[in-house]
Please model this.
Amino acid sequence: MQSEQHPESTSPSAKAPPFLAEGNLSTDSLADEATALLSQIQHIDSEPVVTFEIWRKEVKQIRKLAWPISAGSLLQMSLGLTTVFSLGHLGTKELASGSLAFMFCNITGFSIGVGMSTALDTLCSQAHTGSKDPHALGKHLQRGLVVMAGLFIPVAILWFFTDQILVLLGQEAELAHLAGQYAKWTTIGLYPQFIYECLRRYLQGQGIMQASFYVTLVASPINMLLQWLLVWSPVGIGYIGSPIAGAITYCLLPIFTLAYIAFVDGKKAWGGWDWKEALDVSQIVEFIKLGAPGVAMVCSEWWAFEIITLATGLLGDSYLAAQAVVLNTCSLMYMIPQGISIAATTRIGNALGANCKNRARLDAWTALSIGLMIGCFNSTILFLIREKWGYLWNNDPEVVKLIAEILPLGAMFQISDGIGVIAGGILRGCGRQHIGAYINLAGYYALGIPLSLLLAFRYNLELVGLWIGLTVGLFVVSIIQILIISRTDWEEEARRARERVRSREYDEQASSSHTSYGTAPQGSTGDVEDHGVGSSHDPLLVVTIEESD
Model:
């Protein structure tokens, strides 16, 4: 972050907004702790006119927020890859059962927790700039932890019967037994992982993106050491050591994050545990109203890929190996636009919470344009390396040939995937997870998966057919999301955000002139006036950040 200047209010009656009052947050650290999205651009009194310079500065701000998220996601992905590597040294059956258990746990547990925690994407980002309560984010976090505790109980019970469930689904008894053992030990780390997802979003809502990167940077090598120590070192305990190592790592993630909050950044929004707030039924219901569609939004996408992988298994081992390589490659590429998506969620939520509808609209379209560029870049890279990429993973000529055939489709997939994940982040920033859920369910399950199965097995296109259907489905999802975003009433979204964070009382008590964060004047209707992108009345633009190129 470059040097900061904070212009003082020209009105003697102006006062700082509540989350700056009482020493909660100094103005010198405002840009970093509030959102890290603030940049001064030219004043525009009427409708926003987006110039290349404005767009360029927006890109720089999103990039600053996004890179720690992308890097942290890559490190978190390494936790699963380390497990695969560790089990692979034990044997085929151990690797197969561990992979089966990991897929079962993802489908029935981790994906649900990630989806439910998306409620905090909306609540924390909007409350950070819109709420008069300096501890609003901490209260949302407390309710999130309560909801996650309630979610953990049925998932843990389900995981206890993993082996019986897998046998009922037709899996071999010995394989199901080993997978059941894996799931039972993984249960130890399930709620800590849920806690970590909530803590991450609590920090991201404040624009503190680097925390997850530092946490996973420390946790990843610890996981590698534990996998070696517990699985195949001289004192290792074999197969069962892998889920134990994973569970310990999952427990360390929230511990390290809490240490970051306590000693580095983020605790000013906490305010201490309050059982009355944590168990506020009306607010828990509001949380679930946002989180339940988030579950549908996340799970519909995760489950679609698992269904395609299961269908690939019907084609044979070579096809399954090629599918694993292509899917892992696309997952690696996905981490870059995912960081942009989370940055967009935070920026748009902050903007709407501060009643800056034009700023939110600019952030949305800037993020989508970045997604398109990243998608095209990733697509070009995959297309160019398609003939050689398979040799890095496998020496079987048949598998390498299949990978070369599928990667051009994977390249096209990158464009729709880059746009789709960012569009989903925009919807979360607005609190419209339900729209994303409907679109995903329709795109994947009414079109993508049926088309995949039809082309693969009815028209004998095999793995190519599976990827054609998946790519078409995701393109449709992305196009519909863009249409929804293009028709968004940003003024209405800002109004909903103000209602969500209960900012009316703050508006009524505001002073007669704008403060450094857009306080409404006395006697106004309570709305912070938004004069367009770059307006000096825009609460997200008044703080200046001088940037050097």
